[in-house]
Design goal:
By secondary structure, the chain is α/β, with parallel strands linked by helices. It has three domains: 13-197, 3-Layer(aba) Sandwich (Rossmann fold), CATH 3.40.50.880; 206-395, 3-Layer(aba) Sandwich (Rossmann fold); 408-510, GMP Synthetase, Chain A, domain 3 (2-Layer Sandwich). Helix content is 34%, strand content 24%. The protein contains 16 helices and 18 strands. It has helices at 24-33, 47-52, 91-99, 186-197, 206-221, 234-247, 265-276, 287-294, 300-322, 334-337, 346-355, 358-365, 378-387, 392-395, 415-434, 487-500, and strands at 13-18, 37-42, 57-60, 86-89, 103-119, 132-145, 151-156, 163-166, 171-174, 226-229, 251-257, 281-285, 327-329, 369-370, 443-457, 460-473, 481-482, 504-509. Strands 2-1-3-4-9-8-7-5-6 form a nine-stranded mixed sheet, sandwiched between helices. It has a five-stranded parallel sheet with strand order 12-11-10-13-14, with helices on both faces. Strands 15, 16, 17 and 18 form a four-stranded mixed sheet that branches. A hairpin with a 6-residue loop joins strand 7 (151-156) and strand 8 (163-166). The longest helix has 23 residues, at 300-322. It binds xanthosine-5'-monophosphate (XMP). Xanthosine-5'-monophosphate is lined by residues 304, 346-347, 350, 354, 399, 401-403, 443, 477, 514, 518-520.
């Protein structure tokens, strides 16, 4: 569970007990879209710990287990005596039914996909819905006999008990997943639960978050100083703006040029943050050191390790120069800190490693780390950035990996290859923006391939390298699809790169999705 000692979270919150569903995070996001704060708590926390969160309502998530299995996750049933409204989803429904004495049966086959439910009885949960609704099912177990005191309020062809209610106790359960987009009116169902049943107020906005967060930061930091590593990406930039609002120039930002940044990136960061936003910014050009260490290295993991380690070295050295600082700030987001019951994907591990290197862990233990965005999802961070007066261009920037262009240059990283890649990447992004496609893509970038092929330019034979175009759509980088780019646009990008970038005579398009490929090439 997250420590809220330093946070802008409101009093009123929904606790989502996580039984391991792949959709648990989605439940939290859907609830927050309704301007109600929601937080995920693993099912195995004691009921006292859960009660300590003072939930205004509880949602029991789905999960991959079967309720009567030996090691099936158990519901701490004492939480039901807290007297707050409860909504059980899928496995959560089964946990409720089991506790209240109903019967569950294992289905002979999993029901997975779209289904139609028929609403059998007027229920506040289904207010404003039609008699028949399309929903998304994903379950093995189903309810055979609902518990005493509960009524069936919806049925589907495959599941007679698709939804139940105990109106007096304010306990509800659905077999399907209202949080999934394919449940056409799922958002209305969640809205009904939050506002019709729980009578919550939609007060979780980024404006209110700024107010309470600024106060909390001031309380915690007092007249102390805070150090932040600024990368120029969305998360660290928003962290900087929020901290600046709270403590002004007692925030010291260190921006390290590691030599593998995008074209003109360091100039842009200095211009934007130092001149325009008046941040207390310390610029360190360590590019020579990084490039010397990367010389002759072509293994991707080794590149990552070298850059990660050197970053900490440079950063700590600068910190010592500043002298005393009381806190270290990081732009860690909520998905990095959720104690997820389901297994996490590789990108999660990458990011959490990034913010949890041993030096940082030591500081976290001593309570010296401030992570003001640790309760927020990415879309909320963007909204917060806008609220703090940042430009859309900055707030909607694509993610850029810590090891930068080093993992987009296949093989050895040399100054010449960096220059070529910077130029090609700049043209690609410029054209994508010009075509109005930047915001619809998760990431778009160029990759340098150390393969040489033959070409002709004018009357001359060339023998030069290749640039690959990578453009993907995604919601969280866990999975990604290669993006369709219009033929005319591809033609322009290819022409411009080959004509304007010396050292490139061929452009190829990457049409691989994740999985099985990854977004980055290394
Ligand atoms: P992959 O390539 O694993 O990338 O599909 C998923 C997301 O993570 C980013 N990424 C990184 N970010 N350090 C980072 O800070 C890294 O070493 C790293 N590797 C990948 C990648 O850009 C994508 O958004």
């Amino acid at each position: 569970m997250i420590d809220h000692a330093l946070s802008g979270v409101p009093e009123q919150k929904v606790v989502i007990l996580d039984f391991g569903s792949q959709y648990t995070q989605l439940i939290a996001r859907r609830i927050r879209e309704q301007k109600v704060y929601a937080e995920i708590v693993p099912f195995h926390k004691t009921w006292k710990e859960i009660a300590g969160e003072k939930p205004a309502a509880i949602v029991l998530s789905g999960g991959p287990s079967s309720i009567y299995e030996k090691d099936a996750p158990q519901l701490q049933t004492e939480i039901l005596s807290l007297g707050v409204p409860v909504l059980g989803i899928c496995y959560g429904l089964c946990a409720l039914v089991k506790h209240f004495g109903g019967n569950i049966e294992g289905a002979s086959r999993r029901e997975y996909g779209r289904a139609v439910i028929e609403i059998k009885k007027k229920s506040p949960l289904f207010r404003g819905l039609k008699k028949k609704e399309t929903v998304w099912m994903s379950h093995g177990d189903k309810v055979a006999v609902p518990p005493k005191g509960f009524e069936i309020v919806a049925s589907s062809e495959n599941a007679e008990t698709a939804a139940i209610e105990h109106r007096e106790k304010k306990i509800y359960g659905v077999q399907f997943h209202p949080e999934v987009y394919h449940t056409v009116n799922g958002q209305q169902i969640l809205k009904n639960f939050l506002f019709e049943i729980c009578k919550l107020t939609p007060s979780w906005t980024m404006k209110s978050f700024i107010e309470s967060s600024v106060q909390a930061i001031r309380r915690e930091v007092g007249d102390g100083t805070v150090l932040l590593g600024l990368s120029g990406g969305v998360d660290s930039s928003v962290t900087a703006m929020l901290l600046q609002k709270a403590i002004g120039d007692r925030l010291y930002c260190v921006f390290v040029n590691n030599g593998v940044l995008r074209k003109n990136e360091s100039e842009k960061v200095i211009e934007r943050f130092k001149r325009h936003m008046k941040l207390n910014l310390i610029y360190v050009d360590a590019s020579k050191r990084f490039l010397a260490l990367l010389k002759g290295v072509d293994d991707p993991e080794q590149k990552r390790r070298i850059i990660g380690r050197e970053f900490i070295n440079v950063f700590m050295k600068e910190a010592k120069k500043i002298g005393r600082f009381d806190y270290l700030a990081q732009g860690t987001l909520y998905p990095d800190v959720i104690e997820s019951v389901s297994t996490k994907g590789p990108s999660d591990t990458i990011k959490s490693h990034h913010n949890r290197v041993p030096e940082v862990l030591k500081l976290i233990k001593s309570g010296k780390v401030i992570e003001p965005l640790k309760e927020l999802f990415k879309d909320e961070v963007r909204e917060l950035g806008i609220e703090l007066g940042m430009s859309e261009e900055l707030v909607y920037r694509h993610p850029f990996p810590g090891p930068g262009l080093a993992i987009r240059i296949i093989g050895e990283v040399t100054p010449q290859r960096i220059k070529i890649l910077q130029e090609a990447d700049d043209i690609l992004v410029e054209e994508i923006k010009f075509a109005g496609l930047y915001r619809s893509l998760w990431q778009v970038f160029a990759v340098f391939l150390p393969v040489r092929s033959v070409g002709v330019m004018g009357d001359k034979r060339t023998y030069e390298n290749v640039i690959a175009i990578r453009a993907v759509t995604s919601v969280d980088a866990m999975t990604a699809d290669w993006a369709y780019l219009p033929e005319e646009l591809l033609r322009r990008i290819s022409n411009r790169i080959i004509n304007e970038v010396r050292g490139i005579n061929r452009v190829v398009l990457d049409i691989s999705s994740k999985p099985p490929s990854t977004i980055e090439w290394e």
